[in-house]
Amino acid sequence: MKHWRGFRIILLIAVIAAPVPVLANTIDGWIADRFAEEILDGVPDAPQVRIAVQAFAAKDVPIAPEAANEFNASLLSALIRKSSGRHVFVARGALKSLVRDVSQTAVPGPRDPAETLLENARADVLVIGTLRRAGDDMVLAYKAVATGDGAVLASTKAQRFRVRDSDVLQAALNLDQALSAATQYLAQRVDGLEEVRIGDIRYRSETAETPFSHYLRDRVADEFRRGATGVLSASGLRVRSDGGGDETGPGVYRLIGTYWPLGRSVELSLSLRDRDGVAVTWRERIRTDSIPASLALGPKQESTPVVASVELPWQRTEPSPAPRRHPTRVAGRETVAEAQRLLHTLGYDPGPVDGILNPQMRRAIAAFQRNNGLGTDGRMTRALVASLRTRSR
After folding, report:
1. Nearest CA among 273, 191, 262 for reference residue 232
2. Neighbour count for residue 96 (Cβ, 10 Å)
């Protein structure tokens, strides 16, 4: 009995210490076989039953869809093997190529061969996968659904595994996936969100602006406006540029962020803050190769001045250069009021339209300048008014 008890303890320790399966781009054969057996147990056993595996959509998976669909390929192979000819399997992923090939090579006749192909490609049972991330692991499960009435015929147990290639996890999302996931995550975790003010998304912890910073702000604002969160419609959520002030109220949150280039990936962090501090933060790595190559990730490098030989006053033969002129300032209240109206139109908050150049107005000007590559001095000039007029058309 003592020996048996000791054996049970050793067995328990072995089970607890058993490592999570470490996989490459496909799921191991035993996992795919288990999924296939659980699915086929619930599907009617008849040769005329047609089964298809639905491809993962980019917005539904935490890794690149190409990598996720490799799991589907492993499952389809196991389903065909386990079925032993008892079912018909439809290759949905190959339909576009097949239709193109049939359309190009078919002999003219009374029926369109492409239409016939699509009719024959119908499925009676659709196998739908769910893939989520749990720390450094992935959790995968499938269900088989009847296409006629939506009845769930089979549901597999979730299998947890680890991807061998760390880059698949550490830089899993492309830029489009990341921004869609970020806006969904943030909006779903803030109760009563009514207005998002898009603030700075900075390079590292620096104040320097980069082309990628501007691009990120525009893209995040577009995602919120598009109502892609699934929680708020575009008409139910106000999105505007942050004027730099501290004025927020109930339901109003400021979005700020940072990003860190890490070679093959970029770590992006976005936060929604209310007047009391950070409400919720989303952080993930995105693939560098999914960022437009024309966007510089870092700030512009200052050119090193060339030191010329010193010219003494009595050696100077040419006249001294004219003194540097500052931009022409504008002090008229009517012009200031016009600028305030234009800033409001462009989504900034300069305060009331009263023609007074107060600190809130200067902060709004600085925010407009920063977002349009015009510096950040907050000055009220004729050039500024001209820029406001041009961008508000």
Report:
1. 191
2. 9
Calpha distance 215→209 (Å, rounded): 11
What is the phi-psi region of residue 227: left when phi exceeds 0, alpha when psi lies from -120 to 50, beta otherwise? left
Q: What are 24's two structure tokens? A: 């490459």
Cβ neighbours for 168, distance < 8 A, ≥ 6 positions apart: 25, 63, 64, 67
> What is this structure's pTM?
0.44
Taking the C-alpha atoms of residue 37 and residue 22, their distance in angstroms, rounded to an integer, is 22
Per-residue pLDDT of the chain (393 residues; tens, 9 = 90+): 445 444 443 333 333 344 444 444 456 678 889 999 999 999 988 778 888 888 887 667 777 677 788 888 889 899 999 998 888 888 765 545 554 555 555 555 555 555 555 556 678 899 999 888 776 678 899 999 998 888 999 999 998 877 655 444 444 678 888 888 888 888 888 888 888 899 888 887 666 678 899 899 999 998 888 864 444 444 578 888 876 555 567 788 999 888 988 887 888 989 898 877 767 888 888 888 888 888 888 876 544 444 444 454 444 555 555 544 445 455 577 888 888 888 877 778 888 888 888 888 888 888 888 877 787 788 888 888 888 888 776
Contacts (Cβ under 8 Å, ≥6 apart) of 306 = none
| Rounded CA separation 181/198 (Å) | 17
Same fold, 18-168 and 175-290: yes
CATH ID of 175-290, from 2.60.40.1120, 3.40.50.10610, 3.30.460.20, 3.10.450.50: 3.40.50.10610
- Tell me, letter by letter, the H, E, C secondary structure of 306-369: CCCCCCCHHHCCCCCCCCCCCCCECCCHHHHHHHHHHHHHCCCCCCCCCCCCCHHHHHHHHHHH
Q: What is the DSSP string of 24-81?
A: SSS--HHHHHHHHHHHHHHS---TT-EEEEPPPPGGG-SS-HHHHHHHHHHHHHHHHH
CATH superfamily of 18-168: ABC-type transport auxiliary lipoprotein component (3.40.50.10610)
Domain ranges of the chain: 18-168, 175-290, 329-391
Q: Which two tokens stand for residue 258?
A: 């940072």
